[in-house]
Amino acid sequence: MMDAQTWRVGCRCLLLLALVGFTRSEGMQSCEEVRKLFQWRLVGPVRGLPDSPRAGPDLQVCVAKKPTCCTRKMEERYQIAARQDMQQVLQTSSSALKFLISRNAAAFQETLETLIRQAENYTSILFCNTYRNMALEAAASIQEFFTDVGLFLFGADVNPEEFVNRFFDSLFPLVYNHLINPGVTDSSLEYSECIRMARRDIGPFGNIPQRVLGQMGRSLLPSRTFLQALNLGIEVINTTDHLRFSKECSRALLRMQYCPHCQGLTFSKPCMGYCLNVVRGCLAHVAELHPHWHTYIQSLEELSDAMHGTYDVEHVLLNFHLLVNDAVMQAHLDGQTILEQVYKICGRPVRKPTQSPRCSFDGSKEKHGMKISTRNGEETLANRRKEFINSLRLYRTFYGGLADQLCVNELAAGDGRPCWSGEDIVKSYTQRVVGNGIKAQSGNPEVKVKGTDPVINQIIDKLKHVIQLLQGRSPKPNKWELHTGSGGGVDEQLSGDCDDEDGCGGSGSGEVKRTLKITDYDVVLCIGSPKESARKMLINKFSEVVGYKINTQKSVVFLYTSNEQHKNIVGT
Hints:
Oligomer: single chain
Family: Belongs to the glypican family.
Membrane topology: Lipid-anchor; GPI-anchor
Distance between the termini: 96 Å
Function: Cell surface proteoglycan.
Radius of gyration: 36 Å
Organism: Camelus ferus (Wild bactrian camel)
Strand order of the largest sheet: 1-2
Largest sheet: 2 strands, antiparallel
Main location: membrane
Shape: rod-shaped
């Protein structure tokens, strides 16, 4: 026996079917349903609309042999509504993709701003803790340097080579006055300017400025390009969200969406094949984005994967202060030689008593700073990029399958259901269904596609350009070269797979480990950057430790470190 709940459900279904049948039969005799939907959907006045079906000789698109509930003015309003509906469906389909890119672009920029502030903090604390006498004088140069870093990262027309050299130029007079020739020295602007100008000729910091410039270039430029590419991605979506449909497309959309209303078929949906022909025709130019969009996402992924080690802006910025410390120590160790060179170029200073201002840095910041914090792996910029790329990868074929997605998810009737064919309700659509893209539209029975879309062509050109930038910024580890600095030292050649496990991350002591691939080089580990006179002694000492004589005629790679624990390696 049928239970009460089943009986109630059955009654409701029968009642619903009866109402649907009544509505359809009423629609054939009256235009009341059409009038109500027209007023609700288009917020248009019902005055002048037909009360019952009649001939429509003035209709341009929704032409039918049967009587119609539409007028020419209704048809015009329906055409506007069809375009608006299509734009709304486009925007809905791309909303998740647009949110993904825009949210991450904002998050990456915010993270970079935080990293810049933290790196500036580390550098300021270095001077306050270690070089207290020059800290206050160095503050402006530190601030200017990191301001330039931010400007460059976020797209401003500033030159990394210029702001790196400007920083070390301004640092040299401070190091000279406080470490190399300390005490009661002349602090005149003229003499300090002479020292500043002489920095590049004297090379007091060895190859450290070149190493900084190399690391800044390798890390800042890819990050800058990555951000620019994300902003272009948002521009692409905004462009396709606000397409200007052709006249042919607008007429086809009207025929598909609202011409059924004229026959009282207010709840009908287009057949799948019919919908695909119309939407593929309207979006033929948009489909041309597909190969470029696919390559765009692939290029973003390749660049993101390559941004590690000295290509990782987080690693470079948070370890910048260690290179500054190495530079100051190098100048201090080579002090006597530098002193003589300065005397030759700038003369001897006029000696008079001076009082150096002391550091006034907020001591509470020290708690955040000198020791590189152990950041949670999930919080790193690299992991955020990886998570973003994993999500973005799902949208590689977005534009290639956009028309199909709209018809399947939003517009068309389900398989096996009666549907609108453009002329009447049918069991299935019998016309040929064309593919995606402009070339496939030559045989489209529903939409004629002519010419090209200049707006889409322009955005394709922008995509091609940013793809070139992305691919040009992707490092090729096998082609990395050793760079000889002005101090005669050798810049690092990092392993292509360098990461924290390989020793390229910050250690708990603030030490920056670097893994070098050595072939025809002997290796000596040094505290600071020794003078030439000290190098031979260290080489001989190291020869005793390793048990064989190091050939001093060969190139010798020095790994410089400020880690006190490494003294035992050399001193054993």
